[in-house]
Amino acid sequence: MLLDTKTAIIYGAGGAIGSAVARAYAREGADVHLVGRTMATLEEVAQRIRHDGGTAHVAQVDAIDRAAVVRHADAVAARGGIDICFNATSNDDVQGTPLLAMQFEDFLRPVTKAVTAHFNVATAAGRHMTRRGHGVILVMAGGREAISWLGGSHVAWAALAGLCRQLAAEFGPHGVRVNWLLSPGSPGYGDDDQRQDGASLSEAEDATAPGETKAAGLLPRHLPSYDEVANIAAFAASDWARTITASEINFTGGAVVD
Predict the structure, then answer these.
(1) Distance (Å, rounded) from C-alpha 7 to C-alpha 9?
(2) DSSP result, 34-45
(3) Contact 223, 196 (CB under 8 A)
(4) How is the chain split into domains, by residue range?
(5) Which of 31, 168, 182, 192 could connect to 178 by a Cys-Cys bridge, CB 3.0–4.6 Å?
(6) Burial class of residue 42 (count of CB atoms within 10 Å of its CB; 0-12, 13-18, 19+)
(7) In terms of CATH, what superfamily is 7-250?
(8) Residue range 195-247, pLDDT digits in tens
């Protein structure tokens, strides 16, 4: 198993991406700590993991609350250390309004929340990882493709990329890797219960709303499913990816091509 004996904290574990990543980490042998704001949702994810034979713990923590994040990370580290930190918390962005008509507070909110939450999480875990001389920090970020009507989201994602680069530069000498996962823009991920192989071109186009990217721009012509996202996150957290740091892991299906 890719993550056997590892301890992972997944922030935003009650959401679609976070829960999929938590299940994949547990499947690969990790002891997973599920963190989020809604206890009932976290418990549902934990029960599914335990039913499948994995080990899961839950904690209600708001990533914006630095003191709470630090207390939780300290508690997990005291039980044997932190090997992986994955953050999939939401940014509470406002979409569907052009920048010319957007209130500044609505534009700034996702930027402020993203930087605050990811800084809190990464530094709380990184403090323990750097002391031990190893660890992996992974961040979910949005795409770099030009899409209108997304408010402050693009600025937030750009800020996260910059934050990850600086963290990688400072943590790298201590054996800690930091990467960000570049997700596709809208339309989002396929429903894994119905589309395990991701959304097809026709399905994605049918789901496209104003301001969203059509699957016609994707080279493989399908969107990744949540399970595919989770598998990428498992690889990125594993020793198989030990030479990858300060890097953007692009699984946009060709929506973003460097």
Answers:
(1) 7
(2) EEES-HHHHHHH
(3) no
(4) 7-250
(5) 168
(6) buried
(7) NAD(P)-binding Rossmann-like Domain (3.40.50.720)
(8) 333 433 333 333 344 444 444 555 666 778 899 999 999 999 999 999 999 99
